[in-house]
Design a protein that fits this description.
Blueprint (H helix, E strand, L loop, with lengths): L19 H23 L1 H24 L10 H11 L7 H16 L12 H12 L1 H4 L3 E2 L2 E2 L3 H6 L8 H6 L11 H13 L6 H16 E2 L2 E2 L4 H6 L3 H8 L10 H21 L6 H18 L10
Helix pairs in contact: 1-2, 1-3, 1-9, 2-3, 2-4, 3-4, 3-5, 4-5, 5-14, 9-12, 10-12, 10-13, 13-14
Length: about 300
Amino acid sequence: MAENLYTVSSSPHIRSKDTIQSVMRDVIIALIPAMIAGIVVFKTEALILLIVSITSCVVSEWAWQRLTKRPIKVLDLSAVITGILIALNVPPSLPPWMVVIGGVFAMIIVKALFGGLGQNIVNPALAARAFLVASYPVAMTTWTLDGVSTATPLGILKEGGEVLPGLMNVFLGNIGGCIGETSALALLIGFVYLLYRKVISWHIPVYYIGTVFVLSTFMGRNGFMTGNGLYEIMIGGLMIGAIFMATDYTTSPMTTNGKIIFAIGCGVLTSIIRTFGGYPEGVSYSILIMNLFVPLIDRYVAPRVFGEVK
C-alpha cells in the first residue's frame, strides 16, 4: 500500500534546532560573567582589549573571506568568541596592537589556512596566546592590578613565596592575572549555563579540574602531600581553559571516553608544567598538546558500529 512506502532521503536524518550561531551565542552569554568580572577588576584596560580583540578577529575573518572569494560567515559569531577568549587570556596591561596581532594570527594562520571553522587542529585563541607569549614574553608576563605591578598567585607559588591572596579573594576575583581568569565564581556561572543549555558536557571540565586537584594535592610543590589542591584549581587559567577552550567541538574528542582521556591528559600536563616547568602556568600548552592527540584518541576510542561483525 502507498501509505506503507518509506521516503528515501539523504542524511542527516536526525535534525536539531541548534545552529552554529545559536551555539556560539550561548557561549558568548556564558562568557559575560567573566567579561564583567574582568572589567570590574581591571577597569578600562580590560574593556579596551576586549573591544580591540573582538574587532580584530571579526575584521580578519571578513577580510580573508572577501579576498579569497569565500562565503562571508562572520555572522556565525565564531570570530567573536575567539576575540573574547584571546582578550580574556592576556594581561590587562598588554598594548592593544599586540592583541590585534594575536587576533590576526588566530583567524588567518590557525583557522583560515586550515580550512575555516571546524577544520583547525588546535584552539585558535590558545594558539594566539602561545604565539604572543613567544613573541612578547615580557609584555605577556607583566601583571598589574589597579595600575600597580603585582605578581599572580601562580607566580608567587612558583617563586616559593608564602604571602598569598586569601581563598575568598581568589574565588571572587580580586587578584592579578589575565583578564578572564581572575574570578573563579564568574567562570563557574558560565559553566552552569553551558550545562543547562547542553552546549557542552561535564566530562572534560570535571575530569580536567579534578585531575589537577588530585595531583596538586598529592604531588605538592614541596613534596608528597604538601599541595593545596583547592587553591591550585582556583588560580591561573585552569577554570577558563577547562570550561571554555578544552571543550571546543573541533579540537576535542567526539566520544565520552575520548573526552575523559583528553581531560586527564590535560590535567596531568598542566600539573607537571606548573610543578616542574620553568613557566608558572601550564594550561595553554597542555590543551594545545592534547589537541594534537585528538585524532589518535578518536581513532582508538571509536564506538562500535551497530551491526558490526568481525
